[in-house]
């Protein structure tokens, strides 16, 4: 039997990352609407799966952001909405109960970026990594009559 070795003390270090979620919304998104992020973890999103709880910041030019301190390696599911499940992103594979999924990867500067701004929808990239292509609710893209339309127009 050998003699006991010197005791070893280990301290586990929790590594976090200041994480920015960044998304591009469709051009037709009403300018007065607020974009929210809803997700599976109430400790992260403030409430679990509430489409009107965690507002994002409008950065202009169709870009919205939200920042939160997260654990390095943490896995989350989330969706973008405009205050209700009737006004949630719905397109491609992000439809119905399907969600976006991300694993947080801390960079050397202590930050992480979840970048959902690419509009390369025809690429091989997973839909969960791309910009929102469409909302569930139909949006009016234009109110200009077609060039060949006829009929009376009421002036307001």
UniProtKB/TrEMBL annotation:
It comes from the Bacteria. GO terms for molecular function: starch binding. InterPro entries: Carb-bd-like_fold, CBM20, Ig-like_fold. Residues 11-123 form the CBM20 domain. SMART domains: CBM_2. PROSITE patterns: CBM20 (PS51166). This is CAZy families GH13|CBM34|CBM20 protein. It comes from uncultured Herpetosiphon sp.
